[in-house]
Amino acid sequence: MFKKILEQLRWKKLARQLRKPTGAMGLEVARRMNINNEFLYNFTLDEMMIRYNQHILEIGFGNGKFFYKHFDFATNLRVTGIDISDDMLAAARENNRELIRDRQLELVKSASNSMPFPKNCFDAIFSINVAYFWKDPQEHLCEIARVLKPGGRLYTTIRSTESLSRMPFSQYGFTSYTEQEWKLFCHLNDLSFIRCSLVVEPDLPGAEFTGIRSLCLVAEKIKL
Ligand SMILES: C[S@@+](CC[C@H](N)C(=O)[O-])C[C@H]1O[C@@H](n2cnc3c(N)ncnc32)[C@H](O)[C@@H]1O
């Protein structure tokens, strides 16, 4: 019984850190996410087919270890990142000094339901493992549609409902979505649903969870 309570506390603490990594534990959680989620970054960036001269926004970048990857795909890119955690902003600034100095990357403290950007300014917006935390996804999708250019695309990568349900921390405030549910949310926010790409992540050595399935949900802002 006591062991079970301790386990629950452990998962609850981890869930809180995944939602907003903070302090020394937040830095360690971010480091582990780099190992566990690099595959999803490669998968999502491939899905995005990044092109010359695009302006890209990442929502919820963690410690920002993978921003450099964008620049392997095309030249003359501008990348902006937002995150709600001060500690992740500081870590990401440290990890990307040169890109920031060269004005290729800008990092801003902001939540995705209220962003300090003008309308129609991004060609592509993506997030990886962030949409679980949106209490009201419509609030976030409405704001994302505002800042996306008409014809611009949103890429939302999340673990499947079944895979997430096998991760005990997900019972503490995580929501996953099916393709059908996401389609409806997009439709209500001037985003036309394009596709859902599915992937099975490779099992990492010593992984706690195996055979994890993830989805990249792609939607496009309707051209009026
Ligand atoms: C689970 S971590 C994912 C980090 C990284 N994308 C990855 O997959 O490794 C979630 C990150 O999103 C940030 N975050 C959570 N909700 C957010 C929101 N509404 N707007 C912006 N950032 C958010 C958290 O601070 C955290 O850095």
Structure summary:
The chain is an alpha/beta fold. It has helices spanning 2-19, 23-48, 86-95, 97-101, 137-147, 161-165, 179-187, and strands at 55-59, 78-83, 105-109, 122-128, 148-159, 191-200, 213-221. It has a seven-stranded mixed sheet with strand order 3-2-1-4-5-7-6, with helices on both faces.
Keywords:
224 residues; alpha/beta; Rossmann fold; seven-stranded mixed beta sheet; globular; binds S-adenosylmethionine
Explain this structure to me?
This protein is an alpha/beta fold. 38% of the residues lie in helices and 24% in strands. The chain is built from seven helices and seven strands, in the order ααββααββαβααββ. The protein has helices spanning 2-19, 23-48, 86-95, 97-101, 137-147, 161-165, 179-187; strands spanning 55-59, 78-83, 105-109, 122-128, 148-159, 191-200, 213-221. The chain has a seven-stranded mixed beta sheet, sandwiched between helices. β4, α5 (137-147) and β5 form a beta-alpha-beta unit. The termini are far apart. S-adenosylmethionine is lined by residues 18-21, 33, 37, 59-62, 82-85, 88, 111-112, 128-130, 133.
